[in-house]
Amino acid sequence: MGLEIDYLFHPRSIAVAGASESPDKTGHTYFKNVLDNFKGKSYPINFRAPEVLGVPTYKSVRDLPEDVDYVISAIPNRDIIDLVEACISKNAKVLHLFTARFSETGFERETQLEYEMLEKARAGGLRILGPNCMGLYYPKEGIAWGRDFPQESGNVGIISQSGGNGGEIISTGASRGLRFSKVVSYGNALDLNEADLIDYFAEDPETEIIGGYIEGVRDGKRLFKALRNASKRKPVVLLKGGRTQAGTHMVSSHTASMAGTREVWEAMCRQTGVTNAQSLDELMDMLVAFSTMPPAKGFNLLVGGGAGGRSVLSADECEEEGLHLQQIPEDVRQELERQDPFFGAWVTNPVDSSIMGGSNLTPTTWCS
């Protein structure tokens, strides 16, 4: 799909269904963020209040004076079919559903409602982001679901099936110097899914590093192809939720996804060249590393620093991750012996920095 969904990030107008005057309502936060930061037209939809944040409201999307590109839903699920029909009548391209309580509940009625909504949307050419998601953070266009997200753009693109984890990645990343091109919280992935978004970020010129949190996979073969293509172009780091039996149970109730097995996920990461993070902290570490270092050109590695025990652990971790600790090249060893015969004769890979005590050599000497 690639850049075919670029319109998702470049709406000319945004309507918020369920925009509210109450600061503790999500509809208030969404509309305030749009009103304060979005560069295009913004419309509050509220069939009771005459205005929201000083802006006159419309009782329905149907009542808007012109077509609208992007609609955010913060209304109850019982009203969602009517909203879908209203969006289609105004030629909306995307409906972002913060609205939840669909198939993730496990109830037949809510699951049927979700698929009825999808059928109507597809028939009318309307794409759905969600349901049960926070949506977009695109600082360049002034689109955000969080009140305190950085306004500066960066080069890291994120997909997250969890809105909470997506927000944590943004806030933690910001504190560590990361800035983001685009972040997408996509929830139940009823329509737009992880493969669509990976394909997009692979082609997106604003994104140089791809990261993500995924709970379940809609189409394994398609995701495999998307990841293999993306990792050839830029670094991809993913964290998989639902790796254990307990986690798998939670995934079903969180985003109505099938989590799959740890073994299948790890095999896919190895075969596609994806870096497989084991925690949010490790995901952040990897994103910071990729943002500050040039891409590796191969699997051969020279490790420096740390005393004997650290060197042993470093050697273990390198081999476990498929990296090769090469012997010190003979010409390098000869040069080190010329500068310091004792150190040059003893040095190994990893380099044990504790043997440098009293040496003329420093850790940067053998790197140069």
TrEMBL record:
InterPro entries: CoA-bd, Ligase_CoA_dom, NAD(P)-bd_dom_sf, Succ_CoA_lig_flav_dom, Succinyl-CoA_synth-like. It comes from Geodia barretti. One of its GO terms (molecular function) is acetate-CoA ligase (ADP-forming) activity. Gene3D superfamilies: NAD(P)-binding Rossmann-like Domain, Succinyl-CoA synthetase domains. Residues 8-102 form the CoA-binding domain. Keywords: Ligase. This is Acetate--CoA ligase [ADP-forming] II subunit alpha.
